[in-house]
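Section 5: illustrative case.
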């Protein structure tokens, strides 16, 4: 079942009931505000008061407010330029089958170049082609109203709703600017405070992948930091490092190894030295020296030799 879930892309559920409820309520509030505020325009102009693609935008803004595809520029520019592309194609291409396909493909391309990728924009472009006479009669005004009017309304609702919950920082850039402007504010640990690399390295890694990933370098840095903190809790404590005991780094393949502590200076601050020899795996028969703190970070758990296999001490 795990293999099937991996193939289907079913990830572990990492959100609580409160987060799911907030997302649903936020989507409800966003759409009902659009329908209520644009109802007079719809009656006067004779076009639909809301474009269905706003429902997809609501999912992004309230269920994934920290994602790159959910940011204000992506929302506004993505919908706006997609509407323009859709209207242009609708006016220039007659066959409906070809026009709809060109509108969506063109919108994707232009959004990509503008760094404004917003998946619901594809639906916005398609509606410009297949939305019927009320939409066609609007021409390029379609991009302004109802599209950008709807987008601005749902953006305002998303900012207000997410602001009510301190962990839903939307848009993240707004909160970062606010925190920097407050000299008395307690600054969060900088995302670039990484042991082995910084944000430039993460930017480089994202560029080397070559495909669009819905995560920023700041998010990656936070994920890395939290993962390191969690991994540190699974390493052996300083007071468990004893002379004569064996420890493994818990890695797989050629990185796996087992070290035996030959001697150690049991200083409580972790600065004391550990002399060890590698008895199995990588660098076997080699000796080395490091601080107790470094050894504790390397050692994931204590092991013992049971006949011909190393087993974890429970």
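Designed sequence:
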């Amino acid at each position: 079942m795990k293999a099937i879930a991996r193939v289907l892309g079913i990830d572990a559920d990492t959100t609580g009931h409160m987060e799911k409820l907030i997302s649903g309520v936020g989507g409800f509030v966003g759409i009902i505000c659009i329908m209520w505020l644009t109802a007079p325009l719809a009656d006067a102009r004779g076009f639909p008061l809301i474009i269905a693609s706003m429902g997809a935008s609501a999912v992004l803004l309230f269920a994934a407010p920290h994602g790159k595809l959910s940011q204000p520029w992506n929302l506004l520019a993505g919908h706006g330029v997609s509407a323009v592309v859709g209207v242009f194609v609708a006016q220039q291409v007659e066959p409906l089958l070809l026009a709809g396909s060109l509108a969506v493909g063109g919108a994707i391309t232009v959004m990509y170049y503008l760094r404004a990728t917003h998946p619901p924009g594809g639906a916005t472009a398609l509606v410009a082609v297949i939305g019927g006479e009320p939409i066609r009669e609007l021409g390029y005004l379609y991009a302004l109203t109802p599209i950008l009017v709807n987008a601005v309304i749902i953006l305002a609702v998303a900012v207000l709703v997410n602001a009510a919950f301190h962990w839903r920082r939307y848009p993240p850039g707004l909160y970062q600017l606010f925190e920097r402007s407050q000299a008395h504010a307690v600054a969060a640990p900088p995302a670039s405070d990484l042991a082995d690399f910084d944000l430039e390295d993460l930017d480089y890694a994202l560029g080397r992948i070559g495909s669009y990933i819905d995560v920023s370098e700041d998010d990656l840095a936070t994920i890395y930091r939290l993962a390191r903190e969690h991994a540190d809790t699974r390493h052996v404590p300083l007071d468990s490092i004893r002379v004569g005991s064996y420890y493994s780094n818990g890695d797989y393949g050629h990185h796996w190894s087992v070290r035996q502590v030959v001697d150690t200076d049991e200083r409580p601050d972790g600065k004391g030295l550990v002399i060890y020899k590698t008895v199995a795996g990588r660098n076997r028969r080699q000796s080395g020296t490091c601080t107790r703190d470094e050894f504790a970070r390397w050692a994931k758990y204590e092991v013992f030799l049971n006949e011909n296999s190393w087993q974890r001490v429970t």
